[in-house]
Amino acid sequence: MKLLTVVGARPQFIKAAAVSRVIRSDYPGIIDEVLVHTGQHFDHAMSEVFFTELDIPQPRYNLEIAGGPHGAMTGRMLEAIEQVLLQEGPDCLLVYGDTNSTLAGALAAAKLHVPVAHVEAGLRSFNMRMPEEINRILADRVSRLLFCPTRTAVANLYAEGLTQGVSNVGDVMFDASLHYRGMARERSSVLGRLGLLEQSYVLATCHRAENTDDPQRLQAIIQALAELAGEMPVVLPLHPRTRNTLAALGLNAALKAVTLVEPLPFLDMIRLEQTARCIVTDSGGVQKEAFFYQVPCVTMRDETEWPETVELGWNRLAGASRERIVDAVLQAQRPALSGSAPYGDGQASQLIAEGLLSSL
């Protein structure tokens, strides 16, 4: 069986690493995986380093498509992935998450009648202003296999009339967290390099278009981080989009008390996540990683695709309000452990590989 896997952004590298590891170890000679990197995240710290650090085979194809408006980027990817599909003739195309790479891969395969498998199917924020929401809905519509991370995701698909090929396999990000958390503690020296003590700092990330493309929201977020930096260290790895916007809006000076760093290698990032006092983010993946590592999280959005993290008390939605973000961080506490396991038992990657073989 030939499987064409399309990835293009940091979270997809992490998810693909978990599934690819199972394919290589359990199905050698049975599943031939061809990895296609669209290039959506184009700098070394956001892409190539992850292939090395996560032990993912180098992609057979690197399309080097990055930058530009959503439509232009997706269109270029669609054209390039179509050519790869025609050349490789795979039995299935596998996509992850909700990026432009996800949508382009799913559409290219569907138009050529190649079965599509979507990992993280069924997630919904119910905010159609988010490009990610459009991408995930359309990818689900053209997928034959819908691998859901939670029961909520399954229910979302059923509510939309999608019932065929749907399965709740658990979250591949949880698989990855189990595999890499010990490695990060052993190998990463990031706490020492940044002069941080465990449980004494805030880790922040900000990259969603709804925040970075809205000057008022971004300014409120920056004000909140600056205020928090007066109480405790705040570490902010700067996404390229965020860095460019801050410079354009003249907001860099407001962050003089915040520790600004370049995008971090994966092991450094999860080391910081594991030992933070609180995490402040607009990333879906980081919200879950905070939950996996039992660190309180404040989400700078008005909704989340991961309601389980809120329901279980580990995550608070603060929007882009300076007051709500600051108050939520200062009041953050670890809730009582409930014993709930909404993201599976760490076997999602195995169930995905089994599902691909049995269904196709």
Rg from alpha-carbon coordinates: 20 Å
DSSP strand content: 5-15%
Helix count, per DSSP?
16
* Average pLDDT number: 93
Helical content, roughly?
40-55%
Low-confidence stretches: none
* Distance from first to last alpha carbon: 8 Å
Would you count the extended β strands for me?
A: 13
Word description of this protein:
There is one protein chain. With 360 residues, the chain is of the alpha/beta class. It is 47% helix and 14% strand. It has 16 helices and 13 strands. The protein has helices at 10-26, 48-53, 70-88, 100-111, 131-141, 151-159, 172-187, 190-194, 209-212, 215-229, 240-249, 266-275, 284-292, 307-311, 322-330, 348-359, and strands spanning 2-7, 32-37, 61-62, 92-96, 116-119, 145-148, 166-168, 202-204, 234-237, 259-261, 278-281, 297-299, 315-317. It has a seven-stranded parallel beta sheet with strand order 3-2-1-4-5-6-7, sandwiched between helices. Strands 10-9-8-11-12-13 form a six-stranded parallel beta sheet, sandwiched between helices. Helix 11 links the parallel strand 9 (234-237) and strand 10. Helix 1 packs across helix 7, helix 4 (100-111) runs parallel beside helix 5 and helix 10 (215-229) runs parallel beside helix 15 (322-330). It is globular, with a radius of gyration of 20 Å. 51% of the residues are buried.
Helices and strands in order:
Blueprint: E1 2-7, H1 10-26, E2 32-37, H2 48-53, E3 61-62, H3 70-88, E4 92-96, H4 100-111, E5 116-119, H5 131-141, E6 145-148, H6 151-159, E7 166-168, H7 172-187, H8 190-194, E8 202-204, H9 209-212, H10 215-229, E9 234-237, H11 240-249, E10 259-261, H12 266-275, E11 278-281, H13 284-292, E12 297-299, H14 307-311, E13 315-317, H15 322-330, H16 348-359
Parallel strand pairs: 1-2, 1-4, 2-3, 4-5, 5-6, 6-7, 8-9, 8-11, 9-10, 11-12, 12-13
Helix pairs in contact: 1-7, 1-16, 3-4, 4-5, 7-12, 10-15
